[in-house]
Amino acid sequence: MNDIAFLKELPEDVVIPLLQHKGAVCEPVVSVGDTVHAGQKIGEASGAASAPVHASVSGTVAAIEKLPHPFGTKVLSVLITLDENQKKAGSIPVADPNPSEIRQIIKDAGIVEIHGTPTCDVIENIDTIIVNASYRSTLIAGCVGICSYPYEVHDGLKYMMQAAGAKQAVIAVNKVNKEALEALAGIELEENIKVVPVKTKYTPGMEDLLVYDIMGTTKQIGGKPEDAGVGVCGVNTAYEVYDAITTGRPSMHIPVSISGAVEKPQSLLVPIGMRFKDVIEACGGYSGDVGKVVMNGLTIGIAQYTDDVPVVKQTAGIIVVDKKDVLLDETYPCIHCARCVDVCPVDLIPSRIATYSDQGRYEECRGMHVMNCVECGECAGACPSKIHILQLIWRAKVAIDRAYADTAEKQTSNLTLGCCGGA
Amino acid sequence: MNLTTLLIYSMGTLGGLGLAVGVMLIVAFKMFKVESNPLVEEVVEVLPGANCGACGYAGCADFAERVVNESAPIDGCPVGGFETAKQIGGILGQDVSESEKEYPYVRCNGGVNCVDRFDYVGVEDCKAVMMLSDGEKLCNFGCMGRGTCVRACPFGAIVIAENRLPEINPNLCRSCGLCIDVCPNEILIFAKATEQVHVQCRSHDKGKAVKEACTIGCIGCKICEKACPEEAIKVTNFLAEIDQEKCTACGVCVEKCPQHTIELR
Fold first, then answer.
1. Residues of chain A contacting residue B181, judged by C-beta atoms under 8 Å apart
2. A4-91+250-322 fold
3. Chain A interface, mutation test: which of B132, B174, B175, most A Cβ atoms within 10 Å?
4. Is the pLDDT at A175 greater than 80, yes or no?
5. What ipTM, to 2 d.p.?
6. Which residues of A343-362 are buried (b: 16+ CB within 10 A; e: fewer)?
7. Which of A8, A13, A170, B137 has minimal Cβ neighbours within 10 Å of its Cβ?
């Protein structure tokens, strides 16, 4: 799994969701029956934290309707039936771009980080860029990238530093990832770009911790790494920035690692919008009974209820779990073994927070700094009683957010002061 | 010093201390006396004492104080209902008119009739289910049946029945409205006992999507709207709504509905 393979055969059709970022759903700019080329813009970004969506293949728009999205809901998507000869939309790279032009190119290319923030937002008002190449093994596509194309990642990072006006950059690589370290040692780095081996595997959502561990700077709870003057981006986004600037191509393909109960586990460069079942088919299909299909890692990934969902910009891995490996145990009472406390990377007491959340005592959860939780899922994985700790923490966070937000009063209720804890 | 003297000394010291403290307490009681309104205590006596917070105040004592001092509504306690309101009115010398009692009504008949998208393993709570891709049901509007309302009810009036829908026991329900407030999908609504005809669906999906998800959901076919002799039914956004003021409970819509969504109680 150390190289990114290319797709031998394209699927018959692709589903491109118009929501592949944190913000609002994009406005479709094509209509049913239109012919689109690979790289043509099909969704216009509207509002904050949004990125435009491009066609990843050329073909005919068969439908624009709500279709299943890997995040579980149904999202307005463009269904494209592929043509036989794949034409690419003309793209002219800008020669020798200045910082504001680079920013515009990144914005127009629709490059999105794995956690959903557009890259152009990440690199605003910062003086340091950290490339997070420390993902855990299940999200290996992000780290394979750095072995396969270290020059491109390095140059993409250079462009991003120009765009942001950043003085320094860091590539954080996991200590055990020897190949990536070798690949980076083989290239000539700029003076202000450093490679830092790290112990922890920082998943999406743990950016704050990464910033603290590398820079030693802290920020307010609920703020972003930008507040500390640091932008965190992924390996693949650095590559995409390089690609967008040198060739003018927008974000169209993404490396995805397919592992688990498939015939040929591998990392594959697939067009955005390819359905999971087609991707798994390209890897030789399922081996054995399918228990679960999980996107992006077993601890924090999202289990899919159908394999009709498409690959989106936030997809880095697809894991197929065999039926006999799926644990559907019931929850037992907490035995106070404190394994969750041992594994917590931000020194919380997950067991107690989970108990409070279960009883609906969200204010106590807040007192125990539940908002600091980075949602890595280690606690729920370590729990021998199979308590759904992460879900309970998540519920407490949602309830606290809602309690402190100015929400409209419900029409049907005669409650005026929200005495049930704002929940 | 013999035993008797010791006894007298210690008794004298302790007794003197007790006397001194007693005098201090009496002085403090007289000097710092808080004038409390006797009416408030009387009102607290007649309130149910459940401290459920359904009135919108921090408990029965708080409500009593606000009724007496800040003109909170006399019939503000939904648990005590008209009887309590009448007693409070008697204490404060005000008249109360009786309003009809309202019970929560479940606006979904999905339950086992609704298709599940996946098997859910996790925290037994509607809000927790809702966080995972809008719930396990194919219908995004229906009741999850995970019992958040059951746990919210201070009177034990709600149970999840065998059809995976909440069932409200009108004998135990005191109309406090806590269940209505916690429901994440706004399934429950207050309905008077005299309001007999109800649409048991909340789905604004198009007919095809509803038929895929549920065998008895409203598909927005408008047959009821045309059939109603009182023009009390209006279909807006693929969902029939009944104007309870115009409805005469004739039952024509209940017979005509092809999906058997409309119920006559």
1. 410, 413, 415, 418, 420
2. Ubiquitin-like (UB roll) (3.10.20)
3. B132
4. yes
5. 0.72
6. bbbeebbbbbbbbbbbebeb
7. A8
**A408 falls in which pLDDT band (50, 70, 90)?**
low
Q: Do A72 and B177 touch (CB under 8 A)?
A: no
Pairwise CB contact (< 8 Å): B123 & A420: no
Q: Which residue of B has its CA nearest to A393?
A: B128
Give yes or no for residue A213 having a pLDDT over 90.
no
pLDDT tens digits, one per residue of B60-92? 888 888 888 887 788 788 888 788 888 888 888
The pLDDT assigned to B14 comes to 96
CATH for the B105-190 domain, from 3.90.1150.10, 3.40.50.10320, 2.30.110.10, 3.30.70.20 = 3.30.70.20
Which of A75, A295, A331, A391 is best to mutate for the B interface (most B CBs within 10 A)? A391
CB-nearest partner of A414 from B78, B122, B152 = B78
Any idea which fold B194-265 has? Alpha-Beta Plaits (3.30.70)
- CATH number for A99-247 (one of 3.20.20.70, 3.40.50.11540, 1.20.1250.20, 3.30.2350.10): it is 3.40.50.11540
pLDDT digit string (tens) for B184-235? 888 898 888 888 889 999 888 888 888 888 888 899 888 988 888 888 898 9
* d(CA B5, nearest CA chain A) in Å: 58
Domain B38-92 annotated CATH 3.40.50.720: no
Where in chain A are the domains?
A: 4-91+250-322, 99-247, 339-420
Whether residues B181 and A415 touch (CB distance < 8 A) is answered with yes
pLDDT at A354: 93
Mean pLDDT of all residues in chain B? 86
Core vs surface per residue B143-182: b (16+ CB within 10 A) or e: bbbbbbbbbbbebebbebeeebbbebeeeebbbbbbbbbb
* Contact between B109 and B174 (Cβ < 8 Å): no
Domain with CATH 1.10.15.40 in chain B: 38-92
- Rounded to 5 degrees, what are φ and ψ at A401? -55, -45
Q: Which two tokens stand for residue A5?
A: 């393979």
